[in-house]
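sorry for the late reply, my laptop died twice this morning and i had to redo everyting from scratch. anyway the thing you sent over, i finally got around to it. pasting the sequence first so we're on the same page, its 257 residues, then the predicted structure underneath. double check i copied it right bc i was rushing
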Amino acid sequence: MNSQGDESTVNHKQSIEVFGVFRVRDKDGSDITESFTPRLRQLFLLILLRSESSDRDIQGASIDEIGSALWPHYSSMSAKNSRGVAIRELRILLERLKDVRISNRGQRYILDVENGTASEWHQFWQSCRSMSNDFTKTSPEALVLFLTLARKGTLLEKESYEWLEGLKSDTWSLVLTKCKGIIDAQMQRPYSDLALRAADVLLVWDPLSELALRVKIQGLIERGENGSAKAVLERFAIEYQRAIGRPFTKSLPQFLS
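ok and here's the structure:
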């Protein structure tokens, strides 16, 4: 849960970052990421990511899911005891952040984020829910927030857990769909800043997106930045050669027709 509050209560120092590299900063702005042991790190991420999703009726990490992810070979009693110890340790660690707490609701654990924390995952879903299916009717603020977060990198790009793979795939699909929708809507206003920003995000999440490449090149040339457009094409060609194993044959003039 992420409630809105008076601007004066917001702590701009602390954050929970999940796009690109995982990082947590406490209320004083200190990086406490390394304070999470591998087990606490996985537990925290599981609860955090399950606390927000497209299904508002099912939120939080279930005790069964936590047990399967962290203590798959333990008996139910041993898993329960280990979970209790880990949750207590995690709650103590999270005391270093303002207005962030773990709640136990029935058979699920939820990370409640109130005023004062920039939780990227909560902000991401906030922006997604505020988007209309007609992107021309979505507020620029929601679009900018979404694009700013997604531009940082893919979801937890250095983390690897079996339970995380489906979430990464779903988030990848969601980001691509929304970026393409933003581009389609914004291209009615040729080479808008939002279209270019959406193209940048597409190239982060899908480095071989020719749609993003075309929008980026056309937009830069329209702005008179021919050198930048050429550099973008050259970087794309290098990535294409590396990933596909054959040269990218399209030249700059082919993107201008």
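The chain is about 50% helix and 10% strand.
thats about all i looked at so far, will dig more tmrw
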